[in-house]
Amino acid sequence: MEKAIVLFSGGLDSTTCLAIAKDQGFEVFAMSFAYGQRHSVELTAAKRIIAKMPVAQHRVVTIDLAAFGGSSLTSNLKVPKNRSSANDHDDIPNTYVPARNTIFLSFALGWTEVLGARDIFIGVNALDYSGYPDCRPEYIRAYEAMANLATKAQIEGNRLTIHTPLISMTKAQIIRTGHVLGVDFSLTHSCYDPSPQGLACGACDSCLLRKKGFEQAGISDVTIYI
Description:
The protein is of the alpha/beta class. It has helices at residues 12-23, 41-52, 100-115, 137-150, 152-155, 171-180, 205-217; strands spanning 3-7, 27-34, 57-62, 119-121, 161-163.
């Protein structure tokens, strides 16, 4: 079996992405991050999911993006709620974490070299999302090109591929795909501003897009909202 790193937050998208990688026959190595995010409950969700969808290894890497702030996910800035523009690609909200995917992919790239892997999966989406610049196809292509110039393994001929199976899907299509692959969405967490008990707020961009996705997919939303 070919090995693959899956960037795994415990959210709806990354869990579907993990299910796709397993379905394609990869030996999956999941990588999650404790990066100072206010919604760290997602890491608890990630561990629940891995218990039900076993992988070869699951690593939780600790880094401190809260040291820089600049995002409502890593600082005391207020998370936007009930935005009518939750899917507006021209209006990037303050939930954007500066350079987050570049940092995450770089950690994954290092692990691929150690494992002798040539594949990374990331659940970025360029349709039903909040317009983050590091979720676009041109960004992924640029990062992949850089990665294939930057490491010993790639120079020796082990070309890296970054897989983005969700990038051109609507949220409804992602949910239907995960449903077919047996994903238990009740285990996943998407909310940016959960209650102390870990309940979804129901009003942040991520909750709004999740609700819309289940409605359009015609699948019951099993999320527990405040």
